[in-house]
Amino acid sequence: RPLAHCLVCYTSQKQPQKSRTPSLRPRAATLAKSAVILGAYSSAAAMSAFGTGTRAMQGSLFVYAPGRQAFVTGSLQKKAAVLLGGLSDGLLACPYAPPLAKALEALGYATVQPILRTSYAQFGFGSLDNDVEDLEELFGCEAFRGVEEVFMVGHSTGSQVCAHYARHGKAEKKLRVCLQGGVSDRETDSEREVVRRSPILTRAQWQVDTGKGAEFLPRECHWAPMTARRYLDLHDVGGADDYFSSDLAADELRKRFSAFGARGVGCLVAYSGADEYAPKSVDKAALVEKIC
What we know:
It is a single chain. By secondary structure, the protein is α/β, with parallel strands linked by helices. Helix content is 35%, strand content 17%. The protein has 8 helices and 8 strands. It has helices spanning 28-48, 97-106, 128-139, 157-168, 191-209, 228-235, 250-262, 284-291; strands at 6-11, 60-65, 68-73, 79-84, 109-114, 149-155, 174-180, 266-272. It has an 8-stranded mixed β-sheet with strand order 1-8-7-6-4-5-3-2, sandwiched between helices. The longest helix is centred in the first third of the chain and has 21 residues, at 28-48. The protein is globular.
């Protein structure tokens, strides 16, 4: 089977939705007094500023590579859980992020949410290979120097990122992965959508064939800025992002997921049974069995 020792979690839940001033120079004594006050009240005040229904987390922001940052909750020592959202996601991508971070902290994990070059609306001109490069930078940065174990949690397209990293990343640290809500971007039950995409796929392929794959498609082709190469990655059969399509043959799935078993990467497949982004025609339980 593609995934060795795979733990399957098939739920009936829906997928979580994817949201100069003049310089003042106070005296040293004033700064010291302020530091004491902040030290005493910062934790409670930071969270009390939000209503009970607000999705919020405390932590620290750090730079892991030029122009790229990550937010960490908890003490980053030997274990790190890295949360990766789907298309257009960034920080706090899922409602379960805060409670998951709290549960993981009890197990010794700090929770890290990196901003990748494909985060937010930038996914249309990036790639899974870019994501792997960014994660290599993250895992190799100073903040991760003492980290020995990484638990990657991918939501939606973040699951493709996790799978692609398991397949192509260096994975020098002990690696565990959760594929939560992974779903095909190209599969659809809508004949109208198939007809709409057809000329876009043709144009995108023409651009790639003529050396213009990195050029953007016309604005009407997608709701976010999208290059021809990325459009094919997401929407063409066998594209770089095509990890969870139910019509992939066994050898294709093996090519995508066999690295988990070969490299000893523990994996949890948590597919949402009522995922609104998965076509109703897809036998979700059978797909999970094929993957595992």
